[in-house]
Amino acid sequence: MAGELTNGEASTWRLIQRLADLATGIVEQQIRSAADLSTAEFEVLRCLVAAPDGQLRQAELAAGLGWDKSRLSHQLTRMEHRELLERQKSGRIHAVTVTRSGVQKFEMADGAHVAAVRMLLQEHLSTAEREALQQTAVLEEPVPAVTAREETASPERTAASRPALRVRTT
């Protein structure tokens, strides 16, 4: 039974959204300030710098970022104009390679990213709070759908039997 959120549930959800927005904004501002990169540019460069020889096929890059082909293509075009990366086409294969300028920008941004994330985690969350977040956010297991019949059959599902929230951490 879905129904509406209770006042407490709605309040908690809004708080989580607000904290995520605030943290993302701080990290984005630090990356922009340090290296004049958007978060999207930073994420593309992060994938390329981590790849063997600083190169990935465009399809691999899209899959790694969880982006559709169109979004990635537009982003790569903008980044190519800024000389952060190069694209080569060989038949149906589109290879994307980070440039020296892209590596330098990424390194400047990465330092700012690490400092901002650490500041947010260390200054605003206790060890116990960080551990609670880590227990809530478990790597990539699919959350099974609960049918109405299952919900009716066992209305007192315990916290241990409920699927955990699954998010990718990098």
UniProtKB/TrEMBL annotation:
SUPFAM superfamilies: Winged helix' DNA-binding domain. Gene3D superfamilies: Winged helix-like DNA-binding domain superfamily/Winged helix DNA-binding domain (1.10.10.10). It holds the Pfam family DUF7343. InterPro entries: DUF7343, HTH_MarR-typ, MarR/SlyA-like, WH-like_DNA-bd_sf, WH_DNA-bd_sf. Residues 142-170 are annotated as: Disordered. Residues 30-130 form the HTH marR-type domain. This is MarR family winged helix-turn-helix transcriptional regulator. The lineage of its organism: Bacteria, Bacillati, Actinomycetota, Actinomycetes, Micrococcales.
